[in-house]
Amino acid sequence: MEFLLDENVLGLDRYLDVFELKYRRIGDENCPPLKSGDSEVAKFADKENLVVVTNDDNLRKQCELFGVKYVFSD
User: Fold this and answer.
1) At 53, phi and psi to the nearest 5?
2) What residues make up the domain containing 10?
């Protein structure tokens, strides 16, 4: 399992590193750029089989629309 960290969950990557979990971040090379639209992020996660981590309700809704797994914290 690999995660895609939305830009609004800054700092979470440090914790994932401790547990050696695989992740990518919005804005990383070969990922959607910062400020990408929510549908673009959800489609990318679907294509790459990534679990989205976000606290953005609009991105959560896009993930549901495209059948993308996600972790949501409000």
Assistant:
1) -115, 120
2) 2-72
